[in-house]
Amino acid sequence: MKTTDVGAIMAAPRGGKRGAPSRRVRLEDVAERCGVSVSTASRALAGKGVRADLRAKILDAAKTLNYKFPASIAGRKVMLAASSAAMVDHVRNQFTSYVLEGLSDRARALGVELVSRPIASADDEVAMLGEAEADPAVAGCLFLTLDDESFLTLASDFAKPIVLVNGDDPWMKHSSVTPCNRSAARLATEHLLDLGHQRVLFLMRRGRRTIERRFEGWQDALRARGFISTASLVEEVNDWLPELAAAAMRDRIERQGLDFTAVLAAGDSLAVGAMLGIEAAGYKVPTDVSVMGMDDLPQAALHNPPLTTMHIPMREIGAASLDLLLDDLDGMDLPPRRVEFACHLVQRRSTAARRT
């Protein structure tokens, strides 16, 4: 009996064309073939901002690889619904700003117009969805930093693609793009545990599912090392303002003494406040207490001491959300999916080994 090589079948060209891979070709494949960035390849395929000879090379590579051109999206609109949480975040700690930068850059590269609409209520959402449904130029909708589950319910019968940006749908009815918050917080906590810290305080503001995932990651790391994640090691504030975090840390130390040796904050702004509160109570960072944030906003490197944090790929989240929406326009009838971006540790001088 003749043996069939499954690997050879998977690697064989489709449609009789040499060099065409069996899996779906992405823009990254075209860029790699030409030795250019993804943004350059995207601009070339959109016919914008790339010299003629380079564009011809990229187009030829795209055809050779059987890349499916997203021509139907050029010149169309995507509705961007910014929630109240997104607008507050935009003002408070700029996370949203960098997500929007990545989204806007990707939209320009593809020739897509972004139309922003604030949504603070169900009525706002109904109006926005009605506008998007009635306009044939609108390809789909992006919901930015959305946690209100009633909004997701209202959008369930919307005929055009919807993608949640920096959020997730617990029922998986809509596609979403988010950082892998749970694993990022676990990695952060493990870094502090590896430095010898056994009492790691988690400083957070509740309210968003993405932040709850970070809380769960902190719990995961402690449990895996045999420590108990008790409520006594959680400090909550009701806003992301550094001054509130500073007051919370100072008040806690005055009440209970220094009953922890490290702090993991759910965001960089809270970590900055934690450092201020600890020092106001008469202790030093990182000599007495190590402090770590999550986000890696540009200003994290400018604090004294510079903040150790988890880098969240904010711009990439924005760009990928538009790509995910465009995937649903290709006629492949894909199910809703959740894209989670890995995060990595950025070690600076706000963390150190626990003093014995």
Descriptive report:
This protein is α/β, with parallel strands linked by helices. The chain has three domains: 24-65; 73-179 and 314-341, Rossmann fold (3-Layer(aba) Sandwich), CATH 3.40.50.2300; 181-312, Response regulator (Rossmann fold, 3-Layer(aba) Sandwich). It has helices at 6-11, 27-34, 38-46, 52-64, 84-92, 95-110, 122-134, 149-154, 181-194, 209-224, 242-256, 268-280, 314-327, and strands at residues 77-83, 113-119, 138-144, 162-165, 175-179, 200-204, 234-236, 262-265, 290-295, 308-311, 338-341, 344-346. The strands form two sheets. The protein has a six-stranded parallel β-sheet, sandwiched between helices. The protein has a six-stranded mixed β-sheet with strand order 7-6-8-9-10-12, sandwiched between helices. It is globular, with a radius of gyration of 24 Å.
